[in-house]
Design a protein that fits this description.
alpha/beta; 232 residues; 5 helices; 11 strands; Elongation Factor Tu (Ef-tu), domain 3; Rossmann fold
């Protein structure tokens, strides 16, 4: 059940890539309980009919600080990203949540197949950090697509994680268009097309995510077995 709206205070803003920014908030009234993969809503005091509601996935699992870490990409002329970029530490924003069912399964998967494009990697990163915090990662693969090499979110972090966890494989790809999924599809066929039991979780825009879900269904998975989180 989602928590009612409360006030959160801005802790920090930091650039991650040329077009994405990490935003850290601290709930003022009470800690927010959430699961890795969920999102919260910010009520921004702008727009023709404020508040302007904007949804952002959480990039960090729950911590003792109670901080909420989000990532937003800079949309040209975007009201939401423009407003968030103008904030200063100490500024306050109403938030509500958590929301969403894009969360890890209760039982340990035989192989966790995480697939994300650009900001779709945010909830997947939260899941990986949550799992790593519990010890060794389960058998898992992260397929990460970015529009350019400079916009590869958390690339160094994922490289380091793959080097330290033998059960985890990181496969980054660059494609300007979300519809250009040929390399990603080839990898999915290699992983899920040989009878291997996988738990797929896909996050990104619909043009990226839906063809991949269709492919996994062609490979024998039920539609309900393919978890999807889309942002448009």
């Amino acid at each position: 059940m989602a928590e009612p709206t409360q006030i959160a205070e801005l802790v920090s803003l930091a650039a991650l890539t040329p077009h994405t920014t990490e935003l850290v908030l601290r709930p003022v009234e009470r800690p927010l309980s959430f699961k890795a993969g969920q999102w919260i809503s910010l009520q921004l005091p702008i727009g023709d009919h404020p508040p302007l509601n904007r949804a952002y996935s959480l990039a960090e699992p729950p911590s003792e600080t109670g901080h909420l870490t989000l990532v937003f990409d800079h949309v040209p002329g975007g009201k939401g990203s423009g407003y968030l970029s103008s904030l200063k530490p100490g500024d306050r924003i109403p938030v509500s949540g958590p929301y969403g069912h894009f969360v890890l399964p209760d039982s340990k998967p035989q192989h966790l197949l995480l697939i994300g494009r650009y900001s779709g990697l945010v909830p997947l990163r939260c899941m990986l950090r949550s799992l790593a915090g519990q010890g060794s990662l389960p058998s898992s693969t992260l397929i990460a697509q970015a529009p350019t090499t400079s916009e590869q979110l958390y690339h160094e972090e994922f490289m380091t994680l793959a080097a330290s966890q033998s059960s985890f494989r990181y496969l980054p790809f660059v494609s300007e268009s979300p519809e250009n999924n040929a390399e990603t599809m080839d990898v999915i066929k290699q992983i899920a097309g040989n009878g291997r039991q996988v738990t797929p979780m896909i996050a990104g825009v619909k043009a990226f995510a839906r063809p991949l879900r269709a492919l996994l269904m062609e490979l024998g998975l039920d539609r309900r077995e393919v978890k999807l989180e889309t942002y448009d």
